[in-house]
Amino acid sequence: MPGNNQTVISEFLLLGLPIPPEHQHLFYALLLAMYLTTILGNLLIIVLIQLDSHLHTPMYLFLSNLSFSDLCFSSVTVPKFLQNMQSQVPSIPYAGCLTQLYFFFLFGDMESFLLVVMAYDRYVAICFPLHYTSIMNPKLCVWLVVLSWVLATFPAMLHTLLMARLSFCEDNVIPHFFCDISALLKLACSDTLTNEVFMFITGTLSIVIPFILITLSYARIVSSILKVPSTRVIHKVFSTCGSHLSVVSLFYGTIIGLYLCPSATTSAMKETYSLRNRDMKEALRRVFCKKKLISGV
Ligand SMILES: *[C@@H]1O[C@H](CO)[C@@H](O)[C@H](O)[C@H]1NC(C)=O
What we know:
Blueprint: E1 11-14, H1 24-51, H2 58-86, E2 91-93, H3 94-127, H4 132-135, H5 138-165, E3 173-174, H6 181-187, H7 193-227, H8 231-257, H9 263-276, H10 278-289
Helix pairs in contact: 1-2, 1-9, 1-10, 2-3, 3-5, 3-7, 3-8, 5-7, 7-8, 8-9
């Protein structure tokens, strides 16, 4: 439609979630509580891991990175949503929308790649216990984290640049609580084929491939247990992989089933899992009680 292109959209309206007006206050309080839990829980995990030298192992350093990404990921969308729930006109500037898009993909993909790195770490720990420290050396750990950041930057950048090319005409109403890429593509009045193809490709690369890699590494872990079934090994697998597996299933469960739900919900659940972990509880005790530990294990 030529002529329509003259209109320059300077802001979008975020309609939010379909919550009945009588439940708005309750929902706001719940969402705020969940968001604060996410932030405080993740901060606690990061601080604990930094303070306690027993937790300076690859698994916990990766977990700390995951907590950082998770903290940032929730902060991309939830604060703006909370603010919009309180305002008469729930708007977001055009630049704000693109910024949300960029950081949403950056931190979302970062979480996805870190989960793969953590699965690889567990695979090495269970299948090559004697070579674990030499394989997962500090250099490789830093390299894996940097690689995850770099890999997450590309799709985020390209999605944002491709979105910035599109023109938006009259319709600026997003039926969502954040600048969701598919909602934005529906509003655009220029050709969105490139964006959709790219969305399909990166969706595959950043969701399906990590999922396959995680499944493969757990398949190797399970087959190595089945070869030499011993209660000690099984116990070790459950105690070190249990929390990772819960986070992985939550992460993919969320993507598959609850795409429409606020991200803070799952994040809050994730913290519960991380903090329920025995090592984290002990670290908490050590940090707060300042007890000297005799054993070095
Ligand atoms: C992320 O992981 C790297 C490599 O293991 C580690 O050096 C760094 O301290 C971690 N960063 C955070 C914020 O936990």
